[in-house]
């Protein structure tokens, strides 16, 4: 039976991975209490003790704005810890799956970003995530038999885990008649459950010694929207499920009207063709996944 070590089991993607990875084997999930990535020296010891056949890292420092005032911590968790993971995984001869982000790009394109496009993060968070990617690629360069998957995704939300844009909008929509939402940032909302399914579908291919599909891949739901239109869709879908909301108006605003400590890419749509050619299945459309997530959130409670 395949032993899979899942780091970050308590996050919104981690909790979904606990469910989707289970049919593949014995999943050992660890959260921050068992492994604090702010203390990277713990990593080798944990990996050697667990002796997994596959390591999946769903943990990260994800507080985008807070990272601007905590750059050292963000870089430790998203960079140094990932370097330790990659080096230990290589030493054990085990593949590593690592989740990265659209924020490694600056958002200056107006067509979907390919895996081969130049990175240029404009926030501390994006820089720290790029440091993690770079560390994995350096291990691969040094040891060509090291197998890895870097999966970049974007605008992640889910029914599980802590707050996300969908949960924030639902809370505000229940309390207020009006919300103001940025309309000039474009991307693709992506359901954590779909990310978990994509990682799970990719895993056996990474474990197969006859294949070498290592590399950077993009995965998001399909389609494109703005945060403003995403908010409208959240309220429409929630109301269609009978959720009681106070919201009457969603007001579109520009990025300068909602200043944040961290800069965000104006355009961060990711091209999905590379992973689709491997998995042989298209990514679900973002609104379809939103509907499914809200059904789970409300109908399972």
Spatial strand order of the main sheet: 2-1-3-4-5-10
CATH architecture: 3-Layer(aba) Sandwich
Question: What does the overall shape look like?
Answer: globular
Total domain modules = 1
Mean pLDDT: 96
Q: What's the CATH topology name?
A: Rossmann fold
The major β-sheet equals: 6 strands, parallel
The CATH class, by name, is Alpha Beta
State the CATH superfamily name. Answer: NAD(P)-binding Rossmann-like Domain
Unreliable segments of 5+ consecutive residues: none
Taking the alpha carbons of the first and last residues, their distance comes to 34 Å
Task: Describe what this molecule looks like in 3D.
By secondary structure, this protein is an alpha/beta fold. It has one domain: Rossmann fold (3-Layer(aba) Sandwich). The protein contains 9 helices and 12 strands. The strands form 4 sheets. A 6-stranded parallel sheet has the order 2-1-3-4-5-10, sandwiched between helices. Helix 3 links the parallel strand 3 and strand 4. The longest helix has 22 residues. The two termini are 34 Å apart. Pathway: Carbohydrate biosynthesis; dTDP-L-rhamnose biosynthesis. One of its GO terms (molecular function) is dTDP-4-dehydrorhamnose reductase activity. Pfam families: RmlD_sub_bind. Catalyzes the reduction of dTDP-6-deoxy-L-lyxo-4-hexulose to yield dTDP-L-rhamnose.
